[in-house]
Amino acid sequence: MNERVAIIGVGYTQLRPVSSDVSFREMIYEAAVRAYEDAGIEPRDVDTFVAISEDYHEGTAIFDEYVPDQLGAVLKPVHTITQDGLTALASCVMQIKTGLFNIAVLEGHSKASNILYPSHIDAFALDPVTVRPLGFNPVFLAGLEMQRFLVETGNTEYHCGLVVAKNRATAIKNPIAAYPAEISIEDVLSSNPVSFPLKELDIARKADGAFVIVLAKESVAKRLSPYPVYVEGVGWLQDTPNIEMRDLVSSLYLTGAANMAYREAGIRNPIREIDFAEIDDTFSYKELQHIEFLGIARPGESGEMLEEGYFDIDGEFPVNPSGGNIGCGYMYDSSSLRGVYEAVLQLRGFAAERQIPDVETALIASWRGIPTASGGVVILSNRE
Amino acid sequence: MFEKIEKFDKIRVWKGEKTGWHRYTYGIAGEMFFRKLMEKKFVAGKCPECERLFIPPRIYCEDCFVEIKEFVEIKELPRVYSFTFLFKDLEDNLLKEPEIVVFLKWDNIEGGLIHRLKEVNIEDVNFGLVVEPVFKEKPEGNINDILYWRPKK
Ligand SMILES: [Zn+2]
To answer: Which of A215, A216, A231, A254 is surrounded by the fewest CB atoms within 10 Å?
Structure first.
């Protein structure tokens, strides 16, 4: 099938630090109702469903069995991806590209506030023989990487503080963000050390919420939606799982995923051909590292460009107009779906107060979090 | 639609927990590494194709994808490649004293080890610092046979 694939509907819930009034099912249902309404479809029109979850984050085994009911997907083809949201989006695109399915639905959520000891879960992902027995809180890995990355690239803790101040402030104009705030770089630099040089405010706090996204092949999309947003390229890959084999400076997973997506989208010069980006900022330094390894800035230059306002919402290349994970809240593997949601609003021209003028092409880049070195890249555009 | 609960004292949750009951097989290369560690020695695997050495050793080279059969004892000491001062325990409570977590690398060897550094002035912790292991009196064949690392004396 040579038709493009388009996003024709997006549904969300408010992102919140805790959501003790609703169950995960009710959050997903709320997002699904909005997405179907936005796409002008009913669940019976959907041919295939893809959901994201990790059993240990959900607190049940075989969590994929808990997916169908709240999506209207009972007795429909459903599969779960225990991977990042953009990999799941790629799976929807591939299924539609087979020609067997016209409409696919993607679901991702976070009920992070129900995880009583999240660091224990992260620690359970560490190598059980060589690393986990040391008993460290796995955040040490971000501390080790931030240290080496800053020294090798010449970016500074000040630049990291600037990332936080920018993203928290940008989130003020995003009605779904969980952590909007006017904070200073000083606040970040003087916040409590967690795994020095990583400090409390350098870390995106977790949020609960859900996103549902409806995709369709181009001919169906044009019939159903007045403003389809096309998936022009997707890429995803994993670096080595062995922490000791990494250089703790580069994020090669994004370089590789970006090259894959750029090739498909026909992008040769990302900074010129892309108008804005939603880029993983789970830790402040990660935004800078990811910007550099996506080829948006040269190695070591992201901090200075940030200082010059280049990545501000009204800058030459806005990064995280939603407020990113730092401003909106970290949702584990579903975080990148917030990036997709924001990009769709921007490309439709529906981002209200935070609308970036005249945008045609967006980049979304994800990282799967500690202790992984995996990520995905998606290029979206509103060009007919 | 979607009206939220307003009386929060009415909210109920059920608390559950899961415990892992697993064992983790070291495997061929792991046995090799930890048996030598009990003798207070370090071994690396040598790839027959790219001829690079790897710590911890594995029975394959992840770049060349060929089998590794040669294991070589490493007599040199590693250096601090990166370090961090860790303030939180696994329950995210403040540690009584921060731990110095280090990523150690040996010159001309791929990979390295994550471990802890002690007996050191904070100002002296830096990239390139050569360190030596302090072993447990009675090693048991696991990564904690190394109690910690300290600057080479
Ligand atoms: Zn090799």
So the answer is: A231
